[in-house]
Structures are given as structure tokens and as C-alpha cells.
Amino acid sequence: MIIQNPEKIKEVLDNGGVIAYVTDTVWGLGCLPSSEKAVKKIYEIKKREAQKPLILMSNEVYNLLEYVKPVPKTGCKLIKQYFPGALTVVTEKSDKTPNYITSGMSTVGIRVPDNEVFKEICQIATGHVLATTSANLSHQPSAKTYEQALENMEGLADLIIPDYGHLCKGLESTVVGVMNDELRIFRQGAIEIKLIFD
């Protein structure tokens, strides 16, 4: 295991805490999706608008599937092609996903980052899923290094986990909506979608 303090991470998350961590794109800020208290804390830390939802991330896609309704065929192709990686797929949420994560919307974004430290954090976390956003104040640049994450989140996040040399690439994920097999690109990021349909 790369991470040196797994018990501390689990304890912070289980007690409604908020953690900052590296991903493959930019630094993230997250908590357990079951903790409304922790989700509210993320919005307070970031001074984030209430109508902006969080997304759900995990080390394995099957951990995320219970949070969404059956993903349309087009979405499944994207997941197969680009997970793990810098793609967020927005699709219809299931009843397991609380409204306080999605800002009351009927959809939720899911992603599996390609970063070993982040994957270990998910293995440690109860349920293996984090409700997450970027580790910066709203309308400020995303943190791309451990130093920037410390600068942004020290004294705000309950725990800032080192990257142990597993750096992020510094470009946000591409965000794609998949509804009834129709694709809509909400944000063009690190991955340029090139999907050939049958």
C-alpha cells in the first residue's frame, strides 16, 4: 500500500469529515455520499452555489452502478472505453443517490480516476465511493499540486492526503451527459470524445 495512514482516512470519513486528495486530473475534495453533514461542509468550504451538484467517484465502476439507473448503451460504451480515466459520465441517478449531492437534479456524474493513491483511498473508504468536487474555492483555479491543495484547503479540509509522488496531470475531466443514448458534452476536458457507434 502507498498510503501511510489508512486508519486516519477511514476515521475522518466515517465521522463526517472532508478530505483533499490527488486524482489523475486535478486535486479533489470529497466525503462519504451518505453524510449530508460532510456534503454541506464541502459547499461551505468552497463557498459553492447550492445549484452546482457534486459527482461520485470510485476505484471501480461497479461501486458506482448502484447510484445510477441502468446506463444507456452509449454510456456503457464510453465507460468501457475511457474508465479509468479523465471522463465524467452524467446519467440518471437511482434512489440511492441523495438529492443533497445532485442539487435536487435527477442526474449524477460518475467517474473512476486513474491514480493509484486515489484508488487506495476508495479501497479504505466505507462503501468505496466518494462524493467529490475540485479542491479549490469556487471560481478559483483548481489545485494541480500538493502545495496548491495545502494553500487552498489547509484549515478547511479535515485531512489533506499527500500524493506520494503520484501526480495529477492538471487538466479537468471531460463531462458528458448520456440520456436515452444521446450524448451531450457539458465540459471539454482532458479526453476528446471519439466514439464510433455501430
Q: What structural category do the secondary elements indicate?
A: alpha/beta
For this structure, the CATH topology is DHBP synthase
CATH class: Alpha Beta
N-to-C terminal Cα separation, in Å? 41 Å
Could you give me the name of the CATH homologous superfamily? Answer: DHBP synthase
**Subunit organisation of the chains:** single chain
What is the helix content?
25-40%
**Broad shape:** globular
Series of H and E elements: HEEHEHHEHEHEHEEE
The total of helices stands at: 7
Strand-residue proportion: 15-25%
Question: Spans with pLDDT under 50 lasting ≥5 residues?
Answer: none
Main sheet makeup: 9 strands, mixed
Describe the structure.
It is a single chain. The chain is of the alpha/beta class. It has helices spanning 6-14, 36-46, 61-64, 73-82, 99-102, 116-124, 146-153; strands at residues 19-21, 28-31, 55-58, 87-92, 107-111, 129-134, 159-160, 174-179, 182-187. The protein has a 9-stranded mixed beta sheet with strand order 7-1-2-6-3-5-4-8-9, sandwiched between helices. The protein starts with 5 loop residues before the first helix and ends in an 11-residue tail after the last strand.
